[in-house]
Amino acid sequence: MENLYPPIVDGKSVYDLDSQKYLKMWQGPQHPGVTGNMSLELDISGDQVVKCKAHVGYLHRGFEKLMERRRYINCFPIVCRICVPEPDTNEYLFAAAMEDLLGLDIPERAKWLRTLNLELSRLASFVMWLGGQSGAFGMGTVAQWCLAHRDYVLDLFEEWTGARIYHMYMTPGGVRGGLPEGWDAHAEKVLDGIYKLLDEIRHVMFNNAIFKQRAKGLGVITPDMFDRFGIVGPNVRGSGSTRDIRKDTPYLIYDQLDFEAVTEQGGDVYARAKVRWREVYQSIDLIRQILKNMPRKGPLHITLPNVLHLKVPAGETYVRAESTRGEYGYYMVSDGSEYPRKVTVRGPSYTHAMALLEHLAVGVNTADVAGLMVSLHTYPPEIER
Fold this sequence. Notes:
Mean pLDDT: 90
Number of strands: 10
Strand order of the largest sheet: 3-4-5
CATH architecture of the largest domain: Orthogonal Bundle
């Protein structure tokens, strides 16, 4: 579709245009095509967006300030909630930042289990996202399939950690426990089911003429936008970039696993969806590699003093990992006390759901705003934190 309302009109940004000329329309937060509790304030002309302003809501907020008022170990229930569909990345990064400041190296077995935990979390998040992307274009059947299979992954987490959503499994110094007996067989059954699901999604979603017509050419991200908008993860890999922290600066045991960054060309909604669909195959393969090669014996945790009164040496650090949305980072500052002096979370949603979405939405048909928004894969608590 031709972009009748580009970002610059008559030498002025569309954000400088007189909004009184256009109809005001709100999309969300009570809308099936809105990620989380966000809402979009749209100025429209006919059925095309002239201006978009994102509002991230107030459901979850103030995480970083709350952490300054809690002992380190008491922060773990907080960081999980910064990204509900994929809380484990926050667990890992908070623990890794503490370990870096403490000068700790966790046991080898714990590194394998942490990596397994992160990849299983990626699997659940991506499967949920595929359902959301299809649902945003009216394909409710695929959405129902995906939610059901995500629940099977949550069953695995519950069996392993005792919790379905907020696992709090990765703690400073290692992990809380090993895999229960019979877990591998249960996991293989779930992975087989998701593998078959992906083929069904290919037939129903990616080979669907209507989905192709609406998704191709929508929300194109070009290489010159990567650094300007802080774009990371599948949103850049859908435009041909190979950026992936797991490969570029490996952490845990990713340097011992066999995989390559998944890329697609085109930079549009269709390409981004294809990247994430292929990355589900990748996560399945990585989980199988881990289960095959991980050590089954050995320590899970190093000995620490009473964690309720653990004092972290003064200093600062930045650690990062590759979440389903791209680079996720934690900047932590310690003043030597039992409380963090400062914790800043670099969540990919901040740049994707604010500046990038507001830019890409201009000129889009109102019916496609939901599909565009979901394609950027954002979670509001990462913004209002």
